[in-house]
Amino acid sequence: MSKQSLAENFNPLNISLVVAMSINGVIGSDNQLPWHLADDLKFFKALTTGHTVLMGRKTFDSIGKALPNRQNLVLTRQPDLTLPGAICCANLPEAIQIARRAQETDLFVIGGAEIYRLALPFVHTFYMTRVWVEIPDSEGLVSFPPYNTEEWQETKRLNFSANAQNDYAFDIFTFQRKTKPIEWMEN
Ligand SMILES: NC(=O)c1ccc[n+]([C@@H]2O[C@H](COP(=O)([O-])OP(=O)(O)OC[C@H]3O[C@@H](n4cnc5c(N)ncnc54)[C@H](OP(=O)(O)O)[C@@H]3O)[C@@H](O)[C@H]2O)c1
Fold this sequence. Notes:
single chain, 23% helix, binds NADP nicotinamide-adenine-dinucleotide phosphate, alpha/beta, 5 helices, eight-stranded mixed sheet, globular
């Protein structure tokens, strides 16, 4: 292993997942968020600014542009795709390698469902906004993938009320994985 890849492997990279989901696990509807929660957006901005965010191509399309003041990584299977302000990655190991090579301390996996499913085994910290609404089943809904709640220890919870800026009441939970996540080692 070269000196460079040794440094990349031993540079601790905390991989976090950030999601907002309804009581019944819905995260999106027709490639949009099903709510407007200004205080959750503020939390997300404060958490991720200055770091690297990783998202699926559909989530990038739904946001419509790269998130400012963050390194934006976008997973896509389209080899020739270029997106303004973002680095396109063919797979998860490539994205993790880019974050490590940039000496990043925190990589935030910000959705959508396909990317959450892919990244979950590698996640150390799970920021879950629980939106206290049940979204009725309909076409175009996207849900958070099934996961084992027993693997996660709640370490923090913040409460927010519904008001003019927040469509619904919500809580932001922080969970830490109880056991070590899978580490991605390059060779
Ligand atoms: N509530 C929340 O916190 C939250 C957060 C983020 C997103 N969302 C919502 O989630 C929905 C989008 O989620 P989604 O699951 O439909 O899409 P997504 O995960 O955002 O993106 C899926 C795309 O990622 C690429 N991809 C997936 N697996 C890959 C792999 N193994 N290797 C390389 N590329 C891969 C493919 O892009 P190509 O088609 O280009 O190949 C695929 O079409 C939207 O409604 C959005 O608003 C909600």
